[in-house]
Amino acid sequence: MARRRLARPLEAPVPCLTYGLLLAIVSFAIGYALVVSNAEFWALALTCGFVFVAPMIAMGLYQAGRSIERGEKPTLGEMLYVRDAVRGDLAYLGLFLLMIYLLWGRIAQIVYGLSTYQLHRTVDDFVTFALTTSDGNTMLVTGTLAGGLIAFLTYCGVVVAAPMLLDRHTGVFTAIATSVRAVAENFWPMLIWAAILGVLTLASAATGFIALIVVFPWLGLASWRAYRDLVPGPLPA
């Protein structure tokens, strides 16, 4: 059985922080391009939807966590191209997350459309409407509840499934069922972990994604460690 070690960024600071830096640069570049193109709403939507695609983006960090547990030093190359992630079941999980993200976007549009008859063409106008009017406050509460429920249900299905599909040769449905069961059996700790993920992701976006350089590697390796504790077993050879 492979020797298990705690996966921490300090075990491989250069590749892990470089991974976070690349993600921060790409995120900032996309956000900046949308803002200067007068597509601020798309920037806001993509930022909010980041939580739905983060498990797939973190595959390189799961790979780093697996290497560290084996007593190996992960490299940036193997983190950027995770060979074991190129398989059908992970593609199905990615498609599932994409569909959830599109569903979330449509629900957000419906909530917005039912809340006002006006079209707010800028983010400033939208923020003013949301924060200073009763209809806007109702929209925020309804949207937060609906979005939070969708996000949490998605989290239940992928928090263990994403690293499990990388680590073990199992089907996507088995991985999702294992993830849901793990959350159900450890509900309050996993609820707190979901809140930490959400708060740190939003805080990173508020810094112009600069904080992702450190936050995302830490969250990715911590998520790997959570999976290994929730679904114990020997590391595959």
What does this molecule look like?
There is one protein chain. α4 packs across α9 (161-167), α9 crosses α10 (172-185) and α11 (187-206) runs antiparallel to α12 (212-230). This protein has helices spanning 13-36, 40-48, 50-57, 59-69, 76-80, 88-115, 123-132, 134-158, 161-167, 172-185, 187-206, 212-230. The model has no long low-confidence stretch (mean pLDDT 88). The chain has 237 residues and is mainly alpha-helical.
Q: Give the radius of gyration.
A: 19 Å
Structural class: mainly alpha
What's the total number of strands?
0
- Biggest sheet, in brief? none
> What's the end-to-end separation, in Å?
9 Å
| Strand content bin | under 5%
Q: What would the average pLDDT be, to the nearest integer?
A: 88
Number of H/I helices: 12
What best-fitting shape do the alpha-carbon axes yield? globular
Question: In percent, how helical is the residue content?
Answer: over 70%
Low-pLDDT windows of residues: none
**Would you list the SSEs in sequence order as H and E?**
HHHHHHHHHHHH
How would the blueprint of this fold be written?
Layout: H1 13-36, H2 40-48, H3 50-57, H4 59-69, H5 76-80, H6 88-115, H7 123-132, H8 134-158, H9 161-167, H10 172-185, H11 187-206, H12 212-230
Helix pairs in contact: 1-2, 1-12, 4-9, 4-12, 6-8, 7-8, 9-10, 10-11, 11-12
